[in-house]
Each structure stands twice: as structure tokens, then as C-alpha cells.
């Protein structure tokens, strides 16, 4: 969620009325979601909204980032030196996954459409045509050894 603080509880010191914030106001820890006009949120699940992002962009960040984090960090335990393939790296979860894997010093590849290559390459990922067959991708980019981690944000059979 993202929004403007209307009021704060007596023990809340990091936010004031009028602050623009984003975070998880619901959908975690048994709390209901945030498809509402007003939400009572745990201050520990919020942070100040970056000035460089819109409310819409800020509202999208928590869920996609948590999803990417859980897959790459909590489950796959991505680390330096690994090769990671992220399907659809220019999409929401994929874009977050690229940045997490790159921050962990992995060598990151991603499938994207031709018109989105520059977006992922600007981050430091190696763009792969999304229509390239998997066998060709493995042969060309890993010398036939395969990727250490494949993060599939699409599902289905793949190319």
C-alpha cells in the first residue's frame, strides 16, 4: 500500500500526519489487505515513500519485492558466483529478482522481449530473447552446464 498518514498512535515517532508512506498494511501476519480508503497499519511495516517514485510505483514495491526475496534468498539462497536465470526480468517480480541477485553478486541472465533489453542491461543483467529455446539458452550462456538458479515468474512449459 501507499498513502498519506492521517494520524499516528501515541508511541509512533517515525511518522507524522501528512507523511507519504508505503509498505505492507495488510496481507501479512494475518492482517487483511488494503483495498480500502483508510487503513490502520503497523508502523513497523511502513517506511517513507521515496521522492523519486509515484504512489502507484511505491504501492507495487512491497509485494513484488517480498515475492522475489522469498524465492531467491529464503528458498534458493542465492549467493556470489552463481548463475541465475530470471524469466521475464522486466516484469514486476522479475525486475526485483534481478536486482536482488545482482546485489548478491550473482551473474544474472534474464529473458525479455527485444524492446525491453536496455531496461535489464542497464541494471547489469544479460538479456536473452524470450523466444530462445531453453536448450539453446543453456548451451550458449552456460556452455551446456545449466544455471544454478532459474527463477520462473511466468509458469507454464516455457520456450
Describe the protein's architecture and organization:
- The protein has 159 residues and is α/β, with parallel strands linked by helices.
- The longest helix has 21 residues, at 55-75.
- The protein has 2 domains: 2-49, no CATH class; 64-152, 3-Layer(aba) Sandwich (Rossmann fold).
- The strands form 2 sheets. The protein has a 4-stranded parallel sheet with strand order 6-5-4-7, sandwiched between helices. A 3-stranded antiparallel sheet has the order 1-2-3.
- Helix 1 packs across helix 2.
- The chain has helices at 55-75, 92-103, 117-123, 134-142; strands at residues 2-4, 20-23, 46-48, 83-87, 107-112, 126-129, 149-152.
User: H/E element string?
Assistant: EEEHEHEHEHE
Helix-and-strand structural type = alpha/beta
CATH superfamily of the largest domain: NAD(P)-binding Rossmann-like Domain
Round the mean pLDDT to the nearest integer and report it: 91
Query: Biggest sheet: strands side by side, in what order?
Result: 6-5-4-7
Count of DSSP H/I helices: 4
How many domains make up the coordinates?
2
Helix content class: 25-40%
Give the overall form.
Answer: elongated
Descriptive key words:
159 residues; alpha/beta; Rossmann fold; 2 domains; four-stranded parallel β-sheet; three-stranded antiparallel β-sheet; 18% strand
Element layout with pairings:
Layout: E1 2-4, E2 20-23, E3 46-48, H1 55-75, E4 83-87, H2 92-103, E5 107-112, H3 117-123, E6 126-129, H4 134-142, E7 149-152
Parallel strand pairs: 4-5, 4-7, 5-6
Antiparallel strand pairs: 1-2, 2-3
Amino acid at each position: 500500500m501507499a498513502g498519506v498518514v492521517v494520524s499516528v498512535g501515541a508511541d509512533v515517532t517515525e511518522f507524522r500526519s501528512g507523511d507519504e508512506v508505503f509498505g505492507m498494511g495488510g496481507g501479512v501476519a494475518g492482517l487483511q489487505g488494503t483495498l480500502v480508503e483508510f487503513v490502520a497499519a503497523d508502523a513497523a511495516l511502513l517506511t517513507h515513500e521515496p521522492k523519486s517514485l509515484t504512489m502507484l510505483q511505491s504501492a507495487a514495491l512491497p509485494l513484488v519485492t517480498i515475492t522475489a526475496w522469498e524465492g531467491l534468498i529464503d528458498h534458493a539462497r542465492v549467493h556470489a558466483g552463481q548463475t541465475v536465470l530470471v524469466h521475464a526480468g522486466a516484469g514486476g517480480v522479475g525486475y526485483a529478482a534481478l536486482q536482488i541477485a545482482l546485489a548478491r553478486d550473482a551473474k544474472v541472465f534474464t529473458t525479455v522481449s527485444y524492446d525491453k533489453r536496455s531496461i535489464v542491461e542497464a541494471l547489469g543483467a544479460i538479456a536473452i530473447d524470450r523466444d530462445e529455446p531453453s536448450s539453446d539458452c543453456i548451451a550458449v550462456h552456460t556452455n551446456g552446464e545449466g544455471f544454478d538458479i532459474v527463477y520462473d515468474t511466468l509458469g507454464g512449459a516455457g520456450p
